[in-house]
TrEMBL record:
All copies of domain HTH marR-type, residue ranges: 3-135
Superkingdom of this protein's organism: Bacteria
Gene3D superfamilies: Winged helix-like DNA-binding domain superfamily/Winged helix DNA-binding domain
Native species: Actinoplanes palleronii
Originating gene: marR_4
InterPro entries named in the record: HTH_MarR-typ (IPR000835), MarR/SlyA-like (IPR039422), WH-like_DNA-bd_sf (IPR036388), WH_DNA-bd_sf (IPR036390)
Protein name: MarR family transcriptional regulator
Length: 135
């Protein structure tokens, strides 16, 4: 059976996911890049802005305004690293954790709707495969 190339299929699914996520992000007052930052910091602080930029595949100069906005809104903090005061640790505030959790819960619920027609075994295999390819 003929199929489209992976890039074409992933691109179409990606566009559907972005279209699904945009209204959720807008309701929470978070841009896509801001959500990516919140997601990256949800598991714990990062040691530098450069490390954060590298981990999410963002240009450091593009990331700085996003970080400034998130900090001004009280969602992240930049604290001096006790081991090296020249370095700033980036982490979520309590408000940032709450906002991330609320956005993620809505996104996951929308993803469940998108995947609901797949049999449970296929859905689990799809998610495992995506996780493996994402490494």
């Amino acid at each position: 059976m003929e199929r489209d190339d992976l890039g074409a299929m992933v691109s179409r699914v990606g566009r559907r996911l972005l279209a699904m996520e945009q209204p959720i992000l807008a309701r929470h007052g978070v841009s896509m890049w801001a959500y990516i930052v919140l997601n990256a910091l949800a598991s714990g602080p990062m040691r530098t802005q450069a490390a954060l930029a590298a981990s999410i595949g963002a240009d450091k100069t593009r990331l700085i305004p996003v970080l400034d906005d998130l900090q001004q809104r009280g969602l992240i903090e930049r604290e001096p690293d006790p081991a090296d005061r020249r370095v700033r640790l980036l982490g979520l505030t309590d408000i940032g954790h709450a906002r991330h959790g609320a956005v993620q819960a809505e996104i996951r619920a929308a993803e469940d709707v998108m995947l609901r027609d797949l049999p449970a075994d296929d859905r689990e295999a799809f998610l495992r495969t995506l996780a493996a390819l994402d490494r």
